[in-house]
Amino acid sequence: MGDTLCVLMLLLAWIGVNIADGFWVYYYVVTSIDPDPRTAVDRTNSGFIAFYVMMWIFGFIWGCVNLMVWWGYYKAVHDEPSSRGLGGLRIFIGLFSTFIALPLALFMIIMPFFGAWIVTPLAASHFWNHACDGYPMYAILDARSYNQPDYVPNVARFYLASSTSSIFTYDIGSPDGADFWFFHLREFDTDQSSIPLDNYPTLQSVEYDFINSAVSGNCTVPSGTSEDNTTTTACLHGSFSTSGFFFFNITSSVPLNTSSPSSTSPESTLLRSQDKNWIFNNGAPALTLRTLDSSGDLGQTILRTATTAYKDCTQLKVCLAGLDGSPAGAVGAEVLAPLGIILMNQDNSAIQCTTPSDDSD
């Protein structure tokens, strides 16, 4: 009786450790493809690296433990006299060991060490396709890689929900390469008349002054019946901070493509990232940007980064919600003003992740 109880307890402990290791791999996969919001696993860069390294070390050791357990099982089955006899019991043991125990054994031996390598690409592909389900728009930030020349632009392509064809593209650049940057409309990728009014970008130029941490922007709307007759007016000003929390304090009056900026009432909005660590040295920007009220409480989600494309770390998908009640919606100042700086940081990340290891120094 005592031996049976001991074996049962060891069996339960073995099963429990396998379940715990499965959660270990699960949280690594989830954190790798969707690091926002931050959790205890990736609250700091050093913490995530430690989690990653220990997962591999323990996974190798535990995979060897599982190998020995299953080797013991098959040795016992082979040595059992009933398994070499005739009749239904021998057939049952043979079928069970081949079609149930063998796949389970391979799974439990392979997954502790190789599970993250196997699951992460599959999960990343699924998340890339479905991360922005439920959002009215999304953008793909396509940054320059290490081996591309400087004249290749860093661009943000905008898409309607459930569409794979971009409707317009913004790019970001700096005349002096340092203190003043411009995020502006580069081109329309589809006929302008086919773009829904709520998704048409009238805020077509955003300027970032990194000396004074100031942001400003101009809106362009038609002034006549022809698309060539337009009026451009200042419609955005405010300030921002990228150290610690990602923060914006903006006042904007972004109109629809049928009204003049002066006819739109200015609205002031505070925006802040949900977590302080929104970018690590070796990763793409990862944040959820939300409204911030006067008491310091976070409100609705304005945008959130999703994930980089599998096997192409230069592309970052961003889900765009916009501000409820704003005429410009997902292409309002609350979205476009922060998005330019996110694209700048995606450029830094893309160059790092595509730099050959022998050139990283």
TrEMBL record:
Q: Where are the transmembrane segments?
A: 7-29, 49-71, 92-119
Reading the lineage from the top rank, the first entry is Eukaryota
KW Membrane (keyword) present: yes
Is Transmembrane helix one of the keywords UniProt gives this record?
A: yes
**Keywords from the UniProt entry:** Membrane, Transmembrane, Transmembrane helix
Name of this chain's protein = Uncharacterized protein
User: From which organism does this entry originate?
Assistant: Ceriporiopsis subvermispora (strain B) (White-rot fungus)
